[in-house]
Specification:
Elements lengths: L3 E7 L4 E7 L1 H11 L3 H20 L6 E8 L5 E7 L3 E6 L16 H5 L2 E8 L6 E6 L6 H11 L4 E9 L5 E11 L5 H13 L3 H6 L4 H8 L5 E8 L1 E2 L5 H9 L3 H10 L3 E4 L6 E4 L1 H12 L1
Bound molecules: zinc ion (ZN).
Zinc ion binds next to loops.
């Protein structure tokens, strides 16, 4: 099945649940950025989180940005999502050494290092709303759990998992975010605590090819589940020559004339899809004329 997110509530809306299958979009990111294993997994987890948090946005024009910046060799990741769960992102250092933990798992924390995790929501207000926390583990799911508790005061459980095959390709990718609303009963809270402590790991559920719907049923087997939406999600870059041109114009006439004189051309690169936009002498001249009028 194509990538999608299930949006559900349990117990009359006292728990909200988002479960995503993002296998294709994480593969798309790998194809675009040609990342080594740790950046593939780190970017994949950020994209999966972004696609779910995009689905949490209320208005069509809302935009979410997730940014992690650390002092490790991976340096950082930026991911952007719109309210239709279309995501794009890039990692600042696409190839890094494959650090392993003693358990044999990839050590994302070591590659990312210490730094900050920032969530920015552009909700069409004067200023975007943002929340920032220090990186907790660099595993991303823990960092997000902490972010939700600290910045949004919503107790949440976040799981993100990217399974790679031996060749470094994405076998399966997905994640879930479970959030307790203020009206959640004590019974529900202890049910979830117990459930999450004894649940097979998301990695093993994905390995068994469990779909988001099956995972939902495993999480809340005998509970009153209501599925509200099945939201398609995908990797999507909305850059265009027109947008790049606007960015180029925004540097101003003097700067443009300078570029024209010294380089006679301008190459602009989109980090999200790796497309290059070239503006030759004539293009630059036309932009300057446009600006002067
Ligand atoms: Zn692009």
């Amino acid at each position: 099945m194509d990538d999608h997110i299930i949006r559900a509530t349990v117990d009359e809306g006292s728990v909200r649940v988002f479960i995503a299958d993002t296998t294709n979009l994480v593969n798309e990111a790998l194809k675009i950025h040609k990342t080594s294993p740790i950046p593939t997994v780190a970017l994949g987890r950020m994209l999966t989180a972004g696609s779910i948090m995009g689905a949490m946005l209320k208005n069509d024009t809302d935009i979410l940005t997730l940014n992690i910046r650390g002092d490790g060799p991976l340096k950082g990741i930026t991911v952007t999502a719109d309210s239709r769960s279309r995501v794009k992102g890039y990692v600042y250092e696409p190839i890094v050494e494959t650090f392993l933990k003693e358990s044999g798992k990839l050590d994302l924390g070591k590659a990312i290092g210490f730094g900050t995790f920032t969530v920015i929501k552009d909700l069409g207000l004067k200023e975007p709303v943002s929340g920032q926390i220090p990186i907790i583990s660099g595993e991303i799911a823990d960092d997000l759990t902490y972010y939700f508790a600290k910045s949004e005061q919503v107790p949440s459980s976040v799981a993100l998992s990217i399974l790679l095959d031996k060749g470094g390709f994405v076998k399966k990718a997905g994640g879930f975010i479970i959030q307790l609303m203020p009206n959640a009963s004590d019974d529900m809270v202890s049910y979830l605590e117990n459930k999450l402590a004894h649940l097979p790991s998301l990695t093993s559920m994905l390995n068994e090819e469990k779909s988001p719907k099956e995972i939902l049923n495993i999480l809340f087997e005998n509970k009153d589940i209501k599925i509200h939406d099945i939201i398609p999600t995908s990797y999507y870059c909305n850059c265009s020559r027109e947008k790049v041109e606007k960015a180029l114009i925004s540097v101003g006439i003097n700067e443009l004339e300078d570029i024209l004189k010294t380089d006679k051309k301008a190459n602009l690169h989109c980090h999200f899809c790796n497309k290059d936009y070239e503006f030759n002498e004539e293009d630059l001249n036309n932009l300057i004329i446009k600006l002067k009028n």
